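Table S2 (continued). Query chain:
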Amino acid sequence: MRVDLFDFELPEERIALRPAEPRDSAQMLVVRPGEALEDRHVGDLPQLLQPGDLLVFNDTKVIPAQLKGIRRRGEAAAHVDATLHMRTGPDRWLAFVRPGKRVAAGDRIHFGHDGSSCFLGALDATVLEKGEGGEVLLGFDLSGPVLDEALHSVGHIPLPPYIASKRPDDARDLADYQTVYAREEGAVAAPTAGLHFTPALFDALDKRGIERHFVTLHVGAGTFLPVKVDDTADHKMHAEIGHVSEETADAINKARKEGRRIVAVGTTSLRLLESAASEDGRLAAWSGPTDIFITPGYRFRAADVLMTNFHLPRSTLFMLVSAFAGTDTMRAAYAHAIENRYRFYSYGDSSLLFRMEESDGR
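Corresponding output:
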């Protein structure tokens, strides 16, 4: 499928640099294929859902995975930035390094040598492998919880590039770029649909009789990578580690058997559910990496409704929402959102998408 089918013009001023306050005051565009678009707010979610609906949240927690370092190769030194994106061992992380041409296998990189952190400001790593597109495998001198502590000391919140290019991260981002229910550390990007939820909204959902359960998908920096190919068949997704508990799987299976709807909060929750579901939509406890790539024509098995923010042009996530609600439907929805001054991307507004009936994806 041609990637340019998912392109659109987005005015730069539509990119949100801060979240709405309070979080649940953000706008939300309700998209029901074949029906008129509806302008609402996130706080209206309880009224837009039905008693018995089951919400699925991603409880991953963002870590300070943005690192600044100095690469040393003999007497030569160069400044590099690294964004961790997937842990592969107690002392090993896959990372994107920029500029990628400055590093090679065997190089030593010294992170956080500014005297402001524990371990005398030291967090050192060796480039064990170098792949394509600036991706490397880093072997750190520290391991396990000690490495985690060092990352919290020297690392920064990895704001998306479309925000980081306009302002540095600050103390507000430590709270803003984290869901209120974040629990399992390991993500390097927030599951942004969940950023809209507040304790007050949870109370309202409880009173409405709407159930909620949690899965974990550690979102990687690959979510921000542009699609550089002309055809979706040539795009390679980066894997992310996920986990579905037996309790959550049983609850979702029970809801589906009773004819209740499954509402995925965020594309990360949706991708994990689809990775774990069998052909008939049944879930079992599941753990492992997933690189699922959803494009129009995909047959959804696990979710009926999707709550998600507004995504980048030509992105895998815009392809996913087009598969869910229909390509023409989503192009019209995004045109409406741009015209009506909706705020886009991680700190932006939300949409509530109802799954289209199976068709050709248009």
